[in-house]
Amino acid sequence: MPSVISLIDDDPSVRTATNNLLAAYGYLVHTFASAEEFLRAAELSETSCVITDVQMSAMSGIDLLTHMRSLGHRMPFIFITAFPDDVVRARAIKAGGICFLAKPFATDALIKCLTIALSGSGGASA
């Protein structure tokens, strides 16, 4: 049974490219244009790992992680951003993010983050 990855990004090209990449590695991927769309989705309960953009219009990726934790969900989060910033990275990792990747990210960096996230070993990476 492949791991289910929920990918949340308001940029359709990022969603498509990342979905294709992860599918090629054997992951089952569900894509969402916003945190709110993900929170309403049936796929939320089967998600093994969340990959989310940090900056989105209504709810940020960090706010989504905080909200998910308040609801009792413990799946790992990987943050991606086009605007890497040390302060935001620190907030994302402190909130519980496993990795923080700057767009465009290398394939091996994302796969390494997913391997760490799905192994349950935790550990923050850049």
From TrEMBL:
Where 4-aspartylphosphate occurs, the residues are: D53
Q: Which UniProt keywords apply?
A: Phosphoprotein
Q: Is this entry keyworded Phosphoprotein?
A: yes
Q: Does the keyword Phosphoprotein apply?
A: yes
Q: Where is the Response regulatory domain?
A: 4-118
Q: Which InterPro entries match?
A: Bact_response_regulator, CheY-like_superfamily, Sig_transdc_resp-reg_receiver
Output the Pfam families linked to this UniProt entry: Response_reg (PF00072)
At the top level, the lineage of the source is Bacteria
Tell me which PANTHER family the record gives: CHEMOTAXIS TWO-COMPONENT RESPONSE REGULATOR, STRESS RESPONSE REGULATOR PROTEIN 1
- In its UniProt entry, what is this protein called? Response regulator
> Could you tell me which species this protein originates from?
Bradyrhizobium iriomotense
